[in-house]
Design a protein that fits this description.
161 residues, 3 helices, globular, seven-stranded antiparallel β-sheet, 7 strands
């Protein structure tokens, strides 16, 4: 893999929709994005905030899933534009400690039309122990996607008994 990593520190325009709307940093503790354009890979530094503690001293599995979705989704969005998650599969390997430096890595596996395939892993920064591994399928979306989704939800609420 090339060593020509392009660093990008998160700014408001790079936050996901929820974090941008709420005007705060990343809910999943993502601090820094670094891209390898030649390999279509990304690494991030992050930490699980203590409010996402599941068992004593460890992250809730839901935080791990959301963080992996963010980690893999940021790479998909960087190279494919607007996307949504169609499938996310996670293997939980080890407990993820809270408030500890973590490293996330994701890599582009391929694209078939609207389908983007990404893989990644979450590691303990201190010793590179693999904590979780994931694969994901993302779909590119057009500008009307979110409006159609909102209309569908409104119709469900309107038609509910």
């Amino acid at each position: 893999m090339t060593t020509a990593w392009r660093d990008f520190v998160r700014s408001g325009r790079r936050l996901c929709t929820a974090c941008e709307r709420n005007g705060h940093g990343c809910l999943y503790g993502v601090d820094r994005l670094c891209f390898d354009d030649l390999a279509r890979a990304m690494r991030v530094t992050l930490a699980c905030p203590s409010e996402h503690e599941g068992g004593p001293g460890v992250a809730h599995g839901g935080w791990v899933a959301a963080a992996m979705d963010e980690l893999l989704g940021q790479l998909a969005a960087e190279y494919a534009g607007a996307i949504v998650t169609a499938n996310l599969s996670i293997d939980y390997r080890r407990p993820v400690p809270i408030d500890q430096p973590l490293l996330g890595r994701s890599r582009w596996l391929g694209q078939d039309g609207r389908k983007i395939h990404i893989a990644g892993e979450l590691l303990l920064a201190a010793n590179q122990a693999v904590l979780a591994q994931a694969t994901a399928l993302f779909l590119t979306i057009d500008g009307g996607h979110h409006r159609r989704h909102a209309d569908w939800i409104a119709a469900q609420e309107r038609d509910a008994p």
